[in-house]
Amino acid sequence: MTESCLIVDDSLGxxxxxxxxxxxxxxxxVGVAVNGxxxxxxxxxxxxxxxxxxxxxxxxxxxxxxEQLQRHANPxxxxxxSTYAEEDYSDLIAASPALGFLSKANLSVAAIRALMQRASxxxxx
Length: 125
Prior knowledge:
It contains five helices and seven strands, in the order E-H-E-H-E-E-E-H-E-H-E-H. The chain is of the alpha/beta class. The strands form two sheets. A five-stranded parallel beta sheet has the order 2-1-3-6-7, with helices on both faces. Strands 4-5 form a two-stranded antiparallel ribbon. Helix 2 runs parallel beside helix 3. The chain is globular.
């Protein structure tokens, strides 16, 4: 079972809303980051069960941050999130080290867990 997450997004309003929603649904948000360097530092420090990573971080690409997390942090699964449609980024999502994608509009603990369960090798504990 996914117990903790790190949210990486440059929108403070979204981060606050997502944190409240996910915590009400039983997921512990252990940290938030607004850029790639903070994301890598916090992932290494906090060891979240999953990292929710916005595709568009202002001047940074979430796809590049996903690569950095894979290389430099103690890798936990990454789920890419965005207000854009998955189809807009399907090739980049498939080529990334992320487990997959969730629309911000459909973000929920159930959706996160469903994506984690579909990922190869994941076993709910």
